[in-house]
Amino acid sequence: MIQFLLNQELRSEHALDPNLTVLNYLREHVGKSGTKEGCASGDCGACTVVVGELHTDERGVEQIRYRSLNSCLTFVSSLHGKQLISVEDLKHQGQLHSVQQAMVECHGSQCGFCTPGFVMSLFALQKNSDAPDSQKAHEALAGNLCRCTGYRPILAAAEQACCNKPQDQFDSREAQTIARLKAIAPTQTGELNSGDKRCLVPLTVADLADLYDAYPQARLLAGGTDLALEVTQFHRTLPVMIYVGNIEEMKRIEDFDDRLEIGAATALSDCYTALHHEYPDFGELLHRFASLQIRNQGTLGGNIGNASPIGDSPPLLIALGAQIVLCKGNTRRTLALEDYFIDYRVTARQDSEFIETIIVPKGHTLFRAYKVSKRLDDDISAVCAAFNLKMENGVISEARVAFGGMAATPKRAKSCEAVLVGATWNSATVEKACAALAEDFTPLSDFRASKEYRLLSAQNLLRKYFIELQTPHIETRVTAYV
């Protein structure tokens, strides 16, 4: 059984289909049809809901953290121990919520289909903002698409909603909600079981290891932003899943003198502060990784584990020399991330083995990263590049160059690196290294980019890296090319 709050209503579910998304649960099981399906792939934001969960801040104060999610990519099992808020829950005692009123007064809605998603993103923005902030508003709304109104009035609504925000029913009931969430906090493995399909929700790494050993055919579910597409886009059935999002051991971030250790189930939005502090380019790329809804849901371990050749984080992590800790039963092994990827969607992971931790070395001051995509926000890379050099007296002593989108796996450019190591860092060396990239990669053409464009972009990004290190005042990193 799993338990969660639907606004303030306690829901206990056991026999639901584990493949059921929160979107369809709301619309088909509880009659809340305000949440819309626009794309079923997490691109349009019409299905946005907000999930609240217990969180202790840096001051040790216990509170509810509200986050926007794409309900079309969220399986119901991930709600275990949390609070689900949909657009119907905002109106209170006959009065519109202040974010809804702002949309009305600023003329932020036309056909209205996308409006519930915008309202829920604005609600989460308001809950996480102390004052109007244009940058935060753009970030909060980047995952919501409107085809008829235009964004100026919606951004005006965001400013109004975050300016002198009034107390609402969620504020007045916060203590009560915290108490109710504590009362339903999971204490043992939860389960949804519809007879032919099941999803297990362990609370510890040890329990996960035991369950995965017992069900080696199970699919591991973290954020679900990739896995859920198999259900919503390809109409496949997932007979057995194990949800790892309630394992606190796998959501930790520990900062050591020489490294960061990040639990594989840590949401990308939670990774931002630590990675941005150590490597600003990594932080900037996370801002462009996808929408805020996706970053609130997707995990660093999931972005590695799905072995996509166009995943944004693996090239950066490979260039930094990152390692992963793989767990199977009581056994753990540490593997260089570059050795994890073997072929297209094929990895070195053994049966019943899972990624537990990502280890990111610190102290690489010449690290830079770049993303080439058709649009700036919420888009998949055509090419993702990461460069990491060490130099002594102008001579390159170590080089790690990695790319995504250039091969069947995220991959180091070994021929390029061989040209760089031992050479003087100058334009002649860079041109030789650019030529060597043609030996490292034979990219494919697809709807994102042609093979010629990809190779030329990769070469130009190396030239760009050289220029930026020569003139560090130029701030053009993590750039999109249209």
Question: What topology emerges from the helices and strands here?
Answer:
Elements: E1 2-6, E2 9-13, H1 22-29, E3 48-56, E4 62-70, E5 83-85, H2 98-105, H3 115-127, H4 134-141, H5 152-162, H6 169-172, H7 174-183, E6 190-193, E7 198-201, H8 205-214, E8 219-221, H9 228-232, E9 240-243, E10 253-255, E11 259-263, H10 268-278, H11 280-289, H12 292-297, H13 300-305, H14 313-319, E12 323-328, E13 331-336, E14 341-343, E15 346-347, E16 354-361, E17 368-372, E18 383-392, E19 395-404, E20 411-412, H15 414-420, H16 427-440, H17 451-470
Parallel strand pairs: 1-5, 7-9, 8-9
Antiparallel strand pairs: 1-2, 3-4, 3-5, 6-7, 10-11, 11-16, 12-13, 12-16, 14-15, 17-18, 18-19, 19-20
Helix pairs in contact: 2-5, 3-4, 3-5, 10-11, 15-16, 16-17
Molecular structure report:
The chain is an alpha+beta fold and 482 residues long. Among the domains are: 183 residues, Roll (Ubiquitin-like (UB roll)); 105 residues, Enolase-like, domain 1. It has 17 helices and 20 strands. Strands 2-1-5-3-4 form a 5-stranded mixed sheet. Helix 3 packs parallel to helix 5, helix 10 runs antiparallel to helix 11 and helix 15 runs antiparallel to helix 16. The longest helix has 20 residues. It starts with a strand and ends in a 12-residue tail after the last helix. The model has no long low-confidence stretch (mean pLDDT 95). Pfam families: CO_deh_flav_C (PF03450), FAD_binding_5 (PF00941), Fer2 (PF00111), Fer2_2 (PF01799). This is Xanthine dehydrogenase small subunit. Keywords: FAD, Flavoprotein, Iron, Metal-binding, Oxidoreductase.
